[in-house]
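Ticket reopened. Same input as before:
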Amino acid sequence: MEVLDNVRRGLIPAHIYNDKELFELEKARLFSRAWMFVAHESEIPHDGDYVVRRVLDDSFIITRDAKGHVRALFNMCLHRGMQVCRAEMGNASNFRCPYHGWTYRNDGRLTGLPFHREAYGGDDGFPRGSQTLLAAPNLASYNGLIFVNMDPHAQSLEEFLGDFRFYLDFYTRQSRGGLEVRGPQRWRIRANWKIGAENFAGDMYHTPHTHASIVEIGLFREPKAQKRKDGATYWAQCGGGTTYKLPAGSFDERMRYVGYPDEMIDRIKGVWTSRQQQVVGEDGFMISAASCFPNLSFVHNWPKVRDEAGDGRKNEAVLPFISIRLWQPISENETEVCSWFAVDSAAPPEYKKNSYKAYLMCFGSSGMFEQDDVENWVSLTNTAGGSMARRLLLNSRMGLFSDDRPVVEPLSPAAFHGPGYAQVGYNENNQRALLRLWADHLEMPTPSAAAI
Amino acid sequence: MTTAQLGKPLPFNDNRHLQAHQFLVDEAYLLDAQQYETWLDTLTDDIRYLMPVRVTTALGAGFDTSPGMAHFDEDKYSLSRRVARFATEHAWTEDPPSRMRHHISNVRTFAGADEAHLVVESAELLFRSRGDVNAAALVSCGRCDVLRRCDDHWKLARRTITVDESVLRMQNLAVFL
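Engineering reply: fixed in the latest deploy. New output:
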């Protein structure tokens, strides 16, 4: 397909950001077999806890059953197809369908069926004991991040994530206990889902301009143009992200610079490998935004959450926050954003409080960074829907000469201790890598559904 | 916070109710016009401005907000940063500015803990239109406010915004409610 060939060359047909036919193809060939993030295990800490999440049009109850196992149950009664759970979160031992009263345990087993003997002749007519709500075809988790895959034959989550796990740990494993998350905030934007995923994957170039106001008001000291291009981007297998270059110092000093208290640094050193620590301590790079194909993103920034003048707690004013976000596709031109605040479960209460504040000020539905991003993406999506957009190839070749040689040589393993391809400065390597995976999926036919 | 424990609302001809109602209407005009620096002066220095995330839960679950998560959970410093950002030349989301109308209704005023405080609840519908392509966006919410007497006028000391949607249909909250 010519569209995909252009995408692979870094020349993006503008209509891919608002094209109904391509969205149908994404549903058939991409979301049908990609690992889709649905929840974090800390959202359902106790037996019986559940949240209801969608993968495109399919609703799943993500439950922790009576034995503590996490399950993803298709939220549709076996009888007439009613949603058996219409709340979005809670705690329940059973789900009872409101239509005819069929009842399921929180592990999915059908346990109650009114008038089973009279209506069905008992198990002879309907063998109740062997029935369960449909389970998601594939379910797996990494560092508490729960993913669903609609393809029962998909490669394992561990294989899929591969080298990107090295970077996922920075966001999701800062102690043995791992993360706790709050939220998500949910809101709809009139923008194509790919734009946010690309932006978080590698767009260091937009930061000094789009987010100029953030520096001007003293919220974040880093995104000045000079600082941003000193950072490195990296791509490893299924995901990649951006970093900032930190001032000289040891691992501890650099972690303190972005606001981690010493007790958290000690716990982090207990769980990050020496190579992971070298990325910060020797190479001097600190993770910022990242995306994991297809539609999961992360952000880690360190804003100033209060005016330090007067209250004598100067070194507590800057501190980091972590956010997890999902670009949940609604259509070719609409996305539901789900944005969680995440913090290490062992972090001190005061840190959690301030980190939450940092998140709210910067990202999420009211976040000051986010506000300007979405304005751009909505505008882009609108314009991509017209006929002129079909004549326009957007240049996404930043970082490449015309013969595909890199403008800046990649970082050597001695200068960047993480896996994958990393380089300093402005480039669109990661956006191209993400869209190459997108093109690979769209090109690969899916087996017919006849096997079901 | 609910007003259930506060007894009956003040009669609509009570002077305190009239003052509270006027405060909310005057504020709505400031917010429509994006006169945010003036608006900031109507807030006490210890303002808490909270907008929890609403969630759909079963009847009897005992909660309908996302535990520990809000759209806004602000103090004077964070609100002042938001206002300062709008005053820069690089707050792109509001350049060009939205056309907004804060519709305030169903205002009831209750006597507060002492004479210096009033509790006011209201319904609010924000209409926000941007550009000429996309449909306008709406946010419907209830608000419960505490007003505090400061010299000869009232200031907003606390606001809890109870939004009526679990999934906002607005591209961002680069607005105040």
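Residues 8-163 of chain B form a domain with the Nuclear Transport Factor 2; Chain: A, fold (CATH 3.10.450.50). Chain B has one domain: 8-163. Please confirm and we'll close it.
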